[in-house]
Amino acid sequence: MKKFNLFNEIIILNKLSLINAINSKKLFAINIKGEIIHQPYSDNEILIYEGKPEIIGDFSKVLGENYNVVEDNDRVLIKAFSNWQELIALNTPRASYDDTTADGVAEFSNKDLEDIGWHITEFNVNYRTLVELLEEKCEGTMLCIEQEEPYQFSGLGFLDDNAHAKEVMFEYCKNIVKDKLENDEDFKVDTLTDDEEEAAEFFNCL
Fold it and tell me: Which of 86, 92, 171, 206 places its Cα 20 to 30 Å from the Cα of 101?
């Protein structure tokens, strides 16, 4: 997965397209590619703005005070990190997982991925481990704010292909369960709890 760090990224869009969207007096959105789009949005669309401005004029006033906007000939340049809290609420419904709180990732929005995550916790694998696996092995985008000094991170993960992510995660978890059943004294087959046994069966290890 690639990161789209709003602390660093500048969204560039065509000025005329923005003017036309504003003049339409209809609800529109701007995605991280700098495209003007309308509902319904695709399942993993990532937005940096949604609204129906009532005023026309200075773009920084039109979009809102939490946006840093610069006009450059036929382009409009936008930095959106100051609007992070609103963007969390705007994008969470389409995100694969939410890593914006101090508690970390608690679930996956996709049912197949969540089933895997829920079962593997019986074998002491947490969601953080699974997220790191997905971010390394799968295509997608992490919309985030991340800075080094002092370190700060908050993000929403968007997977491009849930089916591929399911394959990667299931195989990884299956290998862990198999290894624990064969080598871990705490997970001997004849001493498994009902939940552990159910999880082992889920991963085709019993």
Answer: 171
